[in-house]
Amino acid sequence: MEVGDCYIGWATDEDIRTRGASGGLVTAMLAAALEKGLVEAVVVLKKLGEFEAVPVVTSDPEEVKAAAGSMHSVPIVLSRYLDYGTKVALPAKPCDARSTIEQAKRGQVDIDTTYIVGLNCGGTMHPAVTRDMLDVMYKLDPADIEGEEIDKGKLIFETKDGKEHAIKIDELEEEGYGRRESCQYCDVNIPTMADIACGNWGVIGDLAGKGTFVEINTEKGIEILKNAIDAGAVEITPADDKGKAIRAKVDGAMMNVAAAANKKYLSPIEGSHLDYYMNALSDCINCGACKTVCPVCACGEGAKCTDFSSASDTYKMSLFHLVRFVHLMDSCIGCGQCTDVCPVDIPLTHIYQRFAVPMQEEFEYKPGMDMTTPPFFGVDLIEEGH
Amino acid sequence: MNENIFTTVCPGCSIACGMYVREKDDGTFDIDWRKDAVVNAGKLCRFGVRLSANLMNATSKVDGNEVEFSDAVTAAGKAISDGATFVSVGNTTCAEHLALMKLAGSKGAVVNTGMGAFSSIPAECHPTMGVGIPFDAIESAKKIILFIDPYEQYPLLVRRILAAKKNGAAVTAVGWKAVSLADDNKTIDPANYESELALDSDSVIIAELNPSTDPERVMVLLNLAKASGAAIMFMKPFVNAVGCDLASKKTEQKSLDQIIAEINDGSIKTLVCLDSDLIEIMPDETAVREALGKLDNLIVITSRTSAITDVAKIVVATEPLYKKAGTIVNAEGRALHNSGEGTDGIDAIGTMLGQPVGMYDEVHAALLATLGIDAVDERVIPAYEKPDYAAMDANPTAEAVETALVYAGGPFLWNGMVDDNDFVEMNLDMVLANSLLKGIPAKITSDAGEAAVKFKVSDVAPGVVLSNVKLPMTTGMVTSVTVSR
Amino acid sequence: MAEVTEEWQPKIVMFCCNWCSYGGADSAGMGRFQQPPTVRVIRVMCSGRMDPVFILNAFLEGADGVIFSGCHIGDCHYVNGNYKATVKYKFLKAMVNELGLEDERLKLDWISASEGERYAEVVTEFTEQIKKVGPSPLKPEGVI
After folding, report:
1. With contact defined as beta carbons under 8 Å apart, do B446 and B405 qualify?
2. What is the DSSP letter of A298?
3. Which of A308, B10, B359, C81 suits A124 as a labelling partner, its CA being 20 to 30 A distant?
4. How much is the pLDDT for B413?
């Protein structure tokens, strides 16, 4: 087994295989990592409502197995949950994986003890928006929903009576529903930065729906997959070229959609930028939630943005936000958490991205993709042309 | 390494924002955003975000010495005599409040919720004063009149009002300070509310009702709502104030001022406070401390360490709100159920009453009956009847002072909490007139003392020094002061 | 934007490094080079010490323009502090532009200890530049 290899895998345990998504490979792999002592803790998603799951840290393999089939959750600030150096396995969407890597760069997470099990992601939906959408667009009762899936550009809800209800995602997003705005323009669908990238794209033929496509990205990826195979929890077979091509095609199509959304949402502001930003921030109540949830912020309690600003400031704009605008220019991954938690509905992710994207493009630096030092902290002494 | 997750509400104010509390093995906890919560879509204000820093669990004490929980309960049971006075403003679950009502009933007393306005306003108005309107209804209002500062007092209303504005609503704020989201900021004589505000049945009035609210002011607003057909909502500073009010016998209640007066004249000797810290709640802290010192028995049943736990004779420490089994009713009248299963508080009160088991089921059933529902569902607001009421003759007293230190009140739990709201606000004219300098605190002096306080230049009414926290020289909601450098 | 009168003098905050630019300011005074009285100099040990917070704070406190200045590239007392300043400047400049503050309000320049005349020139030029764009839109109410 080598870095770069692709396989199709599934859980050997009948129960996990049927309950977990795509053959339950990820669940089996995480449980095996705990059982064999490869890690001390696993972050699992605990389903707490029809449309909501929260990340929970556990050392109990049974709890990992019970969480099979859970949906995606929000990116977490891993360092808020665990002590530095804890051996942990973390199922991660691309944004989760990227934020974990950014934290590792800032000394908040030990990358050597963190096994990132990447999951393909085509976007996530806010639970409250999902409920509204079901009511307004689908005319369905949230309590009747059994499952959901995305197929051929349509978002399909299955109801308990076995019927499927499909609406085009474009149409939903046109109406302001569907995926989070930041997910719409996110162009990282396959977590190539994770130790191992898992997903159902590229699983074809007899295995469709019963197996998970796995790409090994690092030595740690080999370790965690081998551990599961040695434990007898997982079986794999090499992926064929056709599967790989299909996976790449799906990824490419999603990236095109993202590029279009990027143009739509992040087109230059018309009129005065200053008025736009002053107006957008005028309702800020200084709660600091955006900073608390920010998975790439590693400053903790005594941070420049908080220590140098106060609710008693009489400034025309909040210093807190201005500092964060600069601070996140090279690290914002556009995960959407700040917008989600803002109590006065400031579109913060959108704003941070406006500052960050041009700079990240200029430096050809995409945060969280690998352990490269961010440009803001790196001084290239060879570049003497300044 | 394992975590316990509790689905609960923020204890900060009567909005009762949904949240998760994640408790680690070592008992420390942190909050998480419950995005599926119908009240707030998971969003929290700065109080909620910092809850883990703001809440300190209580410890059981008798005569200042730490004791076992059961010993504190026994001591409290012995000390609560006939003639005791009971206070529960609504910082705990309906179950505990109802249990306390049972205990009080056995001693021939009622539980006072501290909202003095209820006892001086006709009972037919109480349903309108108690349960407000659904927050969704704010978003579809055509006209919104704010008698509160949503940014400082009830931050999670801001997004509702902004949504209403997007839907075309006109927002007028009537208060001490200009509210930036309002289209129009006014100071109006209460006598002219009707003529100047021109409300109709598509309008929503948002005001506050707290223990220090002048009943006459409430009457004026009720009259305004009646005359125009506008919906009215009284926000309350305590998370379960509405639930407690629904359960209580309001007409027999005393205001907190009355209770303090009766302690001072010696007619109250024993006071039982259920998660209610009078020192924090009432504006004149010094006077309250003095009065509490005169009691024979001050018994505090609480989940939180606060000023009153230091002076109480007996402290019965219960589990924090997020762990309690029970229901909270928020300002909309929405019943919200905790996922926790803790019954320390209920058991304590049950034991004092001689009914150590089965209390929870009994009081929970009583609550469901009061609300007229079979089960608690956060997505369905129980139906409340709001009878018509007659217009009242109201004359709110305007306190005429030259320079007024106004205590903005708001959610009282903020008091004594580590926060950065330790400043007063005044307008530029006052800053210039008193030669105040940036970076140098303003000296604020009243009859009760003086203090140097940071100040912020804001668009507040002339002659007003606005404070969101209680300052040492505060003697009431409005205190006459002088400002100097 | 407030009305610009002929008498209006901008307020400029200038951060000078201890080893070069602050010396430059000294030389300018010793050499009696004419310069407008618009600049408030703040000495920092190195231009690399410049934190974006300082500059943003200067604007929010009412500065109409901010210059930060250090040793010429290659001459840094701390080897590469001025390289660091360059990176920070690049980010700040992009941020200030996106924010909608005029490009002219922020400037990075290298002035050595012996360049008194150049110091005076930089200050004079920058003052003229700021006078053209007028008072900062971020100036708080009540600040002159």
Report:
1. yes
2. -
3. B10
4. 65
A354 touches chain C (CB under 8 A): yes
Q: Is C138 on the interface with A (CB under 8 A)?
A: yes
How does the average pLDDT of chain B come out, rounded?
91
If asked whether residues A89 and A14 sit together in one domain, one would say: yes
Domain assignment present for A168: yes
- Cβ density class C71-107: b for 16+ within 10 Å, e for less: beeeebbbeebbbbbbbbbbbbebbbebbbbbeebbb
- Contacting B with CB below 8 Å, chain A residues are 40-41, 46, 48-52, 54, 56-60, 63, 74, 80, 82, 86, 126-128, 131, 282-283, 285-289, 292-293, 310-314, 340-345
- Give pLDDT, residue A384: 46
CA–CA distance, A330 with A350 (Å, rounded to integer) = 15
Chain B residues near residue A313 by CB distance under 8 angstroms = 456
Instruction: Find, in chain B, the residue whose alpha carbon is nearest to that of C142.
Output: B428
List of residues 6+ apart from C118 with CB closer than 8 A: C24, C111
| Residues B431 and B380 occupy one common structural domain | no
Using CB atoms, list chains with 3+ pairs below 8 Å to chain B.
A, C
Strands B442-446 and B449-457: antiparallel
Residue type, C134: G
**Could you give the CA distance from residue A167 to residue A165 in angstroms, rounded to a whole number?**
7
- Separation CA B159–CA A195 (nearest Å): 40
3-state SS string for B24-80: ECCCCEEEEECCCCCCCCCCCCHHHHCHHHHCCECCCEECCEECCHHHHHHHHHHHC
C141 contacts in B (CB within 8 Å)?
Answer: 428, 457
Tokens 């009355």 belong to residue: B258
Domain ranges of chain C: 12-133
Contact C141 B431 (CB under 8 A): no
Q: Are residues A30 and A109 in the same domain?
A: yes
A interface mutation test: which of C51, C89, C95, C101 has the most A CBs within 10 A? Answer: C95
How confident is the model over B20-46, as pLDDT tens digits? 999 988 888 999 899 999 999 999 998
CA distance B266 to B288: 14
What domain range is B478 assigned to? 404-484
Shortest alpha-carbon distance between residue A313 and chain B (Å): 7
Q: CA-CA distances (angstroms) from residue B373 to B129, B362, B377, B382?
A: 21, 15, 9, 7
* Same-domain check for residues A97 and A221: yes
Chain C residue whose CA is closest to A323: C53
Instruction: Flag whether residue C114 sits within 8 Å of chain A, measured between CB atoms.
Output: no
The verdict on B457 touching C (C-beta cutoff 8 Å) is: yes
A90-138: pLDDT as tens digits = 999 999 999 999 999 988 899 999 999 999 988 888 988 999 999 999 9
Do A108 and A233 lie in a common domain?
Answer: yes
**Cα gap C94→A356, rounded to integer Å:** 9
C-alpha angle B346-B352-B355 in degrees, rounded to nearest 5: 70
Residue A169 maps to which CATH number? 3.10.450
Contact (CB<8Å) C56/A304: no
Partnered with residue A237 across adjacent β-strands are: A8
**Could you list the residue range(s) of the whole structural domain that residue A338 is in?**
273-362
Report yes or no: A359 at the C interface, CB cutoff 8 Å. yes
For residues C15-31, average pLDDT: 94
Contact criterion met (CB < 8 Å) for C100 and A272: yes
Chains that touch A (3 or more CB pairs under 8 A): B, C
Q: Would you call C141 an interface residue with chain B, using a CB distance cutoff of 8 Å? A: yes
Residue A118: in which H helix or E strand, if any? strand A114-119
Burial of A278 (0-12, 13-18, 19+ CB in 10 A): middle
- pLDDT of A386 > 50? The answer is no
> Does the predicted interface ipTM exceed a cut of 0.95?
no
